[in-house]
User: Which sequence fits this backbone?
RNA sequence: GGGAGAUUAGCUCAGUGGUAGAGCGCUUCGUUCACAUCGAAGAUGUCAGGGGUUCAAAUCCCUUAUCUCCCACCA
């Protein structure tokens, strides 16, 4: 069956994929040489909240190229696939899907929601795997992993080779907890009011938006006044005024309700008279102190800053330094609090606290100081109200505005607050796109400062290399300034934090803090924090427990059973007797406490313990991807074989999110680097450089591209675009071009088929032909192989693609196939067939890592093959098969053909017209080169005969060549003026070159300073150019005589 | 505010010291047996501006301009 004119990608891809799968061609270690070194790559696990986009196609193409290249080279290769559970992103996707059926997550039980989410995950994970297979990704699919595999609800537990990722994550949490690398604390965190969860710093996008700044007057208590004096740089007074207020600026007026103080810089003379005094907090019936702190910038605004510790990161730090209470104003949805005691009561208590300072953090947090009228309002609504109310009280800096009453037509004056339009950086949730609220909450943190150093050291010493090197600077900068990592999320989808809380009766009447540390007798964890609830009297607020008080104790353990054991152990170690209660796990913190807990004599009642409802940041688990996918904590053979991994190929955008955290966590957990090399690539943009997004509608679906152009074309484009650094603009015109490239190779194979090249062909070593053309193309293949290896070793996928393009299209198709045509009819026919078969095999082998489908298809159909192409040995031939004489001769031949063609085209000689050519002058080398290749030259340059001649006849054009000079008699055909112009143009170009070369060679400094080979090259060039120029001048002279 | 990067042909980009390249697009010609998803030929650049180092600069240094990205707490 003869080959089609084009490669049918759609049907071939399916067939080839099935072929590979049937052969289990991508299993870990497939095609490995005995004793071969390992080459392992962890896929950056795609999120299961959607489908793959073009960036994934790019990323995975690069990985596949490396993996296929190594597999063919006989490395023990593993490409580990898998998916990420994508915490917030998946929960959002599931909630959106449920919303279409009018179902809210809050109306479901956690278990029911998770059940639904697992089903959703199954669908998307299957889709993602299908997409990767369409792309040709040669992952070991039998090992497909998932960052939540093995977690409760997983329906695929026990899948072949699929590691229990959940257990690994939990184990790491417990171990890090026991090493004090993880702690719980009430901190100001980034709170997402849309998802009602904390998020990490990295999940916050700071975006500049148009904002406003208001100015308020906080009046001094007791009607006091002071002299407000401003001075210029020289110290001269340029403003003086008696004031009864301090001026405060804010971009978030609603937070003033939670102010705890006003801060000024200690050196700020303007406010020195009033430091330590109090001001009335507008709208709030409270007095707050004026304090000093280094934070306020005296040169900015009024120099005075309101301190709202619970809603601003800077203010929080100031508040902590100065023991200013942080009053939380908002609920989890970003609305003004409506909980707790009535405002009047809360504000009374706040005054007491301000006077006596006797309180606890817990009490301050429970105090709702939002005045009644603002309670329950959304934060943005509250902002408007606060501004309006302060303005009404005359406490806003205002301006008189003249306005027209639309009904009466009369003018009137109104007092409007001065609102400065101001660009402000506002924090947004990267998933929710809503404004992030700093919120004081209890969260779990990784104490990154403790584990960052080895991660820095590994890159500094080069144990792990980041490519391109600019990524290292970014890496250092972030890690050297690392903040604690908030890892708890108030979500349902994820690894639930393995910490249980029990309310333990304080039988012994212990007072103060008894926190239980890890001890000899408590090997599985520790009681972390000590807390108190339901205190019976006020004294408890001072941190003392009454005998009837309760201890809320937290136990970190891999399972509830282990947590119970720990509780019992602690009890025994504290009391010397067994726990008289039965511990029973309940779903959530009980709303009401069993009375027995207050009656210390009751025995035999159940004590409820419950698990922390929060889940871990998705990056905590993906941070363990390298070891988790290999079966850690089991010492699996794969772990020993493939870890540390060879290279991580990923987008520069997740350097912090993922790469840095994997470095820290692998080093912290198994004390080894996760990978030897990190290759960071840019983001894929559309043809105009715009970010692809669904709302803009410029998203390119990789499957659409594959359907239209084939996976190979997309892959080749990806490789060709992958130069180091920058963003990548993807243009479908370019993909089409590379599809054509595939067709070109396809047709070369088709040509070979038509000429019997494949008959009886088997894979074999390079033939040793006698014909120069055949020697030459073998040498070209060897050069190409070296270029590709060199390029891929340096992650220069673009250079590898370029080398292939130039070899296959520029050398094999443009020249070698054409040269072979006449040879098939001559004495060298047999060796030419053998050489062509071999050369085309090399094209397939060398191109396979980039374009696997078309090459495997041709491989299967062109000869009898012992192995799949994807397992065929990568060639090692080099300089030994390059014949310099053949190389020089073919260069001469191709240059001559080019020159003749060029001259003919410019003289408008009809393409089909065969010309008689005259040899005016030929040295020995040129004569030999001509004789060897006469048929080829005549055929490709359309020359009928070559006759020696003493001089060019009238009406001929001249073709100079190294060691020779030819003439094409074209009397009656050529236009003398045109020929003159042609020659003159060439001569001008050469003269310019000669001038340059002479300029350099005549400069004694050049000859003295430049390297010898550069000087030699320049001299050789000069000789050659002058020779050429002389010939051109002779020809021009002759034309002048004619004219 | 700090950091990184970019600026080369109409477009998208290679090119890190030896006198500028590719693909696409454009112009002209071409259906003879591998390929019109093709072939042959051609045009196109003060390598952002200025200064410096060097025998020699797109390439190294300084500077200016413009753009992009990352990080950051100016109320």
Assistant:
């Amino acid at each position: 069956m003869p080959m089609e004119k084009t490669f049918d990608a759609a049907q071939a891809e399916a067939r080839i994929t099935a072929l590979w799968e049937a052969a289990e061609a991508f299993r870990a270690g497939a095609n490995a040489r005995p004793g071969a070194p390992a080459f392992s790559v962890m896929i950056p696990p795609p999120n299961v909240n959607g489908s793959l986009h073009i960036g994934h196609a790019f990323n995975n193409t690069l990985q596949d190229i490396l993996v296929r290249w190594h597999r063919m080279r006989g490395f023990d290769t593993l490409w580990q696939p898998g998916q990420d559970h994508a915490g917030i992103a998946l929960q959002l996707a599931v909630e959106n899907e449920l919303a279409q059926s009018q179902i809210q997550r809050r109306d479901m039980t956690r278990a029911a929601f998770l059940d639904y989410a697992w089903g959703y995950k199954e669908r998307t994970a299957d889709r993602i795997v299908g997409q990767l297979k369409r792309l040709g990704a040669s992952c070991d699919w039998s090992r497909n992993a998932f960052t939540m595999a093995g977690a409760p609800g997983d329906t695929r537990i026990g899948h072949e080779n699929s590691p229990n990722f959940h257990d690994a994550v939990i184990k790491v949490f417990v171990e890090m907890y026991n090493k004090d690398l993880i702690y719980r604390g009430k901190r100001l965190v980034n709170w997402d009011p849309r998802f009602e969860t904390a998020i990490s710093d990295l999940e916050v996008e700071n975006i500049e938006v148009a904002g406003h700044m208001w100015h308020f007057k906080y009046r001094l208590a007791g009607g006091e006044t002071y002299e407000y004096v401003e001075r210029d740089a020289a110290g001269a007074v340029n403003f003086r005024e008696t004031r009864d207020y301090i001026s405060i600026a804010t971009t978030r007026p609603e937070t003033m309700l939670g102010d705890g103080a006003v801060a000024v810089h200690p050196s700020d003379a303007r406010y020195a008279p009033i430091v330590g005094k109090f001001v009335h907090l507008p709208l709030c019936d409270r007095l707050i102190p004026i304090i000093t702190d280094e934070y306020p910038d005296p040169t900015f605004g009024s120099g005075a800053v309101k301190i709202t510790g619970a809603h601003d990161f800077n203010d929080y730090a100031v508040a902590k330094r100065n023991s200013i209470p942080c009053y939380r104003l908002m609920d989890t949805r970003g609305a003004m609090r409506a909980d707790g005691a009535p405002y009047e009561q809360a504000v009374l208590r706040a005054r007491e606290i301000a006077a006596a300072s006797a309180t606890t953090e817990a009490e301050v947090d429970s105090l709702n100081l939002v005045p009644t009228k603002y309670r329950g309002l959304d934060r943005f609504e509250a902002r408007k109200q606060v501004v309006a109310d302060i303005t009404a009280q005359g406490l806003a800096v205002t301006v008189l505005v003249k306005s027209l009453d639309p009904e009466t037509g009369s003018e009137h004056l109104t007092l409007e607050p001065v609102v400065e339009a101001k660009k402000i950086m506002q924090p947004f949730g990267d998933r929710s796109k809503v404004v992030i609220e700093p919120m004081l909450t209890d969260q779990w943190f990784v104490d990154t400062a403790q584990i960052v150093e080895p991660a820095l050291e590994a890159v500094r010493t080069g144990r792990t290399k980041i490519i391109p090197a600019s990524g290292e600077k970014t890496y250092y900068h972030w890690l050297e300034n690392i903040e604690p990592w908030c890892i708890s999320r108030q979500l349902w989808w994820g690894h639930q934090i393995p910490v249980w809380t029990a309310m333990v009766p304080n039988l012994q009447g212990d007072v103060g803090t008894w926190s239980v540390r890890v001890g000899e007798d408590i090997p599985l964890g520790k009681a972390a924090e000590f807390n108190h609830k339901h205190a019976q009297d006020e004294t408890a607020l001072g941190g003392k427990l009454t005998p009837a008080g309760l201890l809320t104790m937290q136990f970190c353990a891999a399972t509830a059973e282990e947590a119970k054991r720990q509780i019992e152990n602690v009890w025994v170690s504290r009391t010397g007797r067994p726990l008289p209660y039965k511990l029973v796990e309940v779903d959530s913190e009980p709303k009401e406490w069993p009375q027995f807990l207050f009656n210390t004599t009751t025995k035999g009642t159940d004590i409820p313990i419950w698990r922390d409802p929060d889940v871990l940041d998705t990056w905590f688990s993906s941070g363990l991807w390298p070891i988790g996918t290999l079966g850690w904590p089991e010492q699996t053979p794969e772990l020993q074989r493939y870890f540390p991994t060879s290279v991580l190929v990923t987008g520069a955008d997740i350097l912090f999110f993922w790469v840095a955290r994997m470095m820290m966590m692998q080093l912290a957990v198994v004390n080894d680097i996760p990978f030897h090399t990190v290759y960071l690539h840019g983001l894929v943009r559309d043809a105009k450089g715009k970010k692809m997004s669904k709302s803009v509608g410029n998203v390119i679906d990789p499957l659409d591209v594959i359907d239209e152009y084939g996976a190979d074309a997309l892959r080749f484009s990806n490789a060709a675009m992958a130069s180091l650094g920058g963003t990548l603009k993807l243009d479908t015109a370019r993909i089409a071009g590379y599809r054509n490239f595939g067709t070109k190779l396809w047709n070369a194979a088709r040509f070979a088929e038509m000429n019997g090249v494949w008959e009886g062909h088997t894979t074999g070593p390079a033939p040793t032909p006698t014909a120069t053309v055949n020697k030459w193309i073998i040498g070209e293949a060897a050069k190409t192989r070296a270029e590709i290896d060199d390029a891929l070793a340096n992650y220069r996928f673009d250079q590898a693609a370029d080398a292939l393009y130039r070899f296959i299209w520029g050398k094999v198709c443009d020249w070698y196939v054409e040269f072979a045509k006449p040879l098939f009819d001559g004495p060298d026919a047999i060796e030419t067939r053998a050489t062509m078969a071999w050369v085309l095999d090399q094209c397939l082998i060398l191109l396979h890592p980039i374009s696997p489908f078309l090459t495997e298809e041709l491989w299967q159909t062109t000869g009898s093959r012992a192995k799949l192409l994807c397992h065929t040995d990568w060639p090692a031939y080099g300089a030994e098969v390059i014949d310099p004489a053949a190389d020089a001769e073919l260069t001469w031949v191709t240059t001559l053909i080019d020159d003749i063609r060029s001259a003919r085209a410019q003289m408008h000689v009809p393409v089909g017209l065969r010309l008689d050519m005259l040899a005016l002058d030929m040295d020995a080398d040129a004569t030999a080169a001509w004789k060897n290749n006469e048929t080829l030259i005549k055929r490709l340059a359309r020359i009928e005969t070559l006759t020696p001649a003493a001089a060019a006849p009238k009406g001929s054009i001249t073709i100079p060549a190294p060691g020779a000079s030819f003439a094409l008699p074209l009397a009656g055909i050529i236009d003398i003026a045109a020929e003159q112009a042609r020659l003159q143009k060439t001569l001008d170009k050469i003269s310019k070159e000669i001038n340059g070369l002479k300029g350099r060679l005549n400069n004694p400094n050049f000859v003295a300073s430049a390297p010898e080979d550069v000087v030699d090259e320049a001299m050789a060039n000069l000789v050659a150019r002058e020779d050429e120029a002389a010939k051109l001048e002779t020809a021009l002279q002759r034309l002048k005589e004619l004219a």
